[in-house]
């Protein structure tokens, strides 16, 4: 039944996939905590204007990819395609300006109506950080270094960091005029997409994948040549900090990013291991966003990474902790085990118990659940206050007092 398939571009997370997903989120949470971030969770949907007014009318996201719908109260809502605009909205709604500088970590599902392929879904997950309220170039570099630390902690190896400056508003306007002036001469030869972009978003032509466009761009004016003194100084500071922290990078003059809110430093960690979807993690500075949304002028910088893309690159198997399986034999043992399970779980142990079956069936279930130990509780043993503990890996078993069981299991499973 096709209606029982997941919607195209969405997937269920379970088994090893969810273990990996949780491991990635936990690692990112730990790394961001080491940079003194606090966690924030914003709603999965917002009023549409939160995104349409901020990401850019000419951006692919706003133009083609948003899941927008009227709700039953006739409000126009959109499933979030990214996290930054919602966090900027939350910053204003909650009056967080009094808490700056703020370092926020977030993660969760995002939604974009894109053509699904490897590393590209319609519901995907991002994790990210936003450092809000600081204009210092140190913040940009801390955000980049946090991102790199995360990739290293996840043992992802084959990546390259690309950075660029798109300057401040003034520099961008100068560049845009020069670029349009140059490209107008080749308009007829540009790809259809680039012809459309020429009037609405000419800077995006720089990262066109069309070969003819790229040939035309060889003679185009350079973004770096349009940067004013302040923009140049800011970018030079970032390069200096990157060198001091020994973070490898290359400057990609054509990196402009697809969202309108960026200014100054933009960056992407890319890989050649994912085919066309080569961006693992991307971000930049967005000093004007909060003000554009009606808040106070608040400089900010951040990044987001696609969790599914990180998962494709993270090749280590994640093991879940192995449970201990309780096997009651007899009526009183059955009842006693319900209580014993509860007690052992309260001590932080991973305890499982099947609800029916003879010894052999329950033992099979224990093995299937990858239990490391089985605790066999018989009616007679119970009278003596004893249980049998069996190591399911080597088959060895021992009798021990039920009172000593929690401590024994704690010692035996501490490295589990
Ligand atoms: P973005 O470049 O649109 O930036 O997305 C960031 C990352 O999300 C991408 O590098 C990619 O790993 C992942 N991603 C994007 N779309 C998909 C998709 N359809 N399927 C799977 N993964 C995807 C932003 O979203 C900005 N909010 C980043 C940012 C934060 N800038 C400043 N702060």
Proportion in helices = 25-40%
What is the residue-averaged pLDDT?
95
How many domains, in number, for the residues? 2
Q: What is CATH's topology name of the largest domain?
A: BirA Bifunctional Protein, domain 2
Q: List ligands, each type once.
A: histidyl-adenosine monophosphate
By CATH's scheme, which homologous superfamily of the largest domain applies? Bira Bifunctional Protein, Domain 2
Percent of residues in beta strands = 15-25%
Strand order of the largest sheet: 1-5-6-11-10-9-7-8
In whole angstroms, how far apart are the ends? 42 Å
Low-confidence stretches: none
CATH-derived architecture of the largest domain: 2-Layer Sandwich
Q: What's the main sheet like? A: 8 strands, mixed
Can I get a quick summary?
This protein is an alpha+beta fold and 416 residues long. It is 38% helix and 21% strand. The protein has 15 helices and 16 strands.
Can you give a write-up of this model?
It is a single chain. By secondary structure, this protein is an alpha+beta fold. It has 2 domains: 16-168 and 228-313, 2-Layer Sandwich (BirA Bifunctional Protein, domain 2), CATH 3.30.930; 324-414, 3-Layer(aba) Sandwich (Rossmann fold). Helices cover 38% and strands 21% of the residues. It contains 15 helices and 16 strands. It has helices spanning 15-34, 48-52, 60-65, 84-93, 137-153, 169-184, 192-200, 211-217, 229-244, 289-292, 307-313, 331-346, 359-368, 379-383, 405-413; strands at 38-39, 45-47, 67-70, 76-79, 102-111, 123-132, 160-165, 250-251, 263-270, 279-285, 300-306, 324-329, 351-353, 373-378, 386-391, 397-401. Strands 1-5-6-11-10-9-7-8 form an 8-stranded mixed beta sheet. The protein has a 5-stranded mixed beta sheet with strand order 13-12-14-15-16, sandwiched between helices. The chain has a 3-stranded antiparallel beta sheet with strand order 2-4-3. Strand 9 (263-270) and strand 10 form a beta hairpin. Helix 1 (15-34) runs antiparallel to helix 5 (137-153) and helix 1 crosses helix 11. The longest helix is centred in the N-terminal third of the chain and has 20 residues, at 15-34. The mean pLDDT is 95. Histidyl-adenosine monophosphate binds next to strand 6, strand 10, strand 11 and helix 11.
